[in-house]
Amino acid sequence: MQEIEVRAWNKENKIMVYDNEDNSATYWDGVFSSVVGFINFRLWYESVYEFMLYIGIKDIHKKKVFQGDIVKVKRFIFKDCRREEVEGMEEYIGEVVWHQFGWHIAEKIKDGIRYHSLWLWNIKDDETDPDTHFMEILSNIWENPEMKVIE
């Protein structure tokens, strides 16, 4: 089972916090814990922090992808379902979101939003492997709110 990993956007200091980087550590029942490591404790933290989950995927640079990241994706388009002949490449930029029972990339299109499922992804850095999706983290919705897809 995958370990749950969380990061948080500190709304007051405008920084992304991993573990206890903003010195928000506290003691609870004699146990040392940081705000990010203690997301179920609901007091003032809710108004100061926006929490995001690690989705279990790393990008082509081996960076962990979190909810709210803005990513660029490239994938092969095949002529038919045999996947023997490549017709071209599709490239898009979107926001990592939870949508209808799974992680997706939400892409802003002319008529609304298109969701790309991350269910069966094979992410490598080998651009010659046709069974590969190439995902690169560009930013996140907190440091670049103009790139946010889901309001």
Task: Give a description of the structure.
Residues 27-31 have low confidence and may be disordered. This protein has one helix at residues 45-48, and strands spanning 6-10, 15-18, 26-28, 31-33, 49-58, 64-66, 69-78, 86-98, 103-109, 112-117, 133-140. It has 151 residues and is mainly beta. The strands form three sheets. A five-stranded antiparallel beta sheet has the order 10-9-8-7-11, with no helix packed on it. A four-stranded antiparallel beta sheet has the order 2-1-5-6. A two-stranded antiparallel sheet has the order 3-4. The chain has one domain (6-147): Roll (SH3 type barrels). The longest helix has 4 residues, at 45-48. Pfam families: YopX. InterPro entries: YopX-like_C, YopX_protein. Residues 7-146 form the YopX protein domain. It comes from Tissierella pigra.
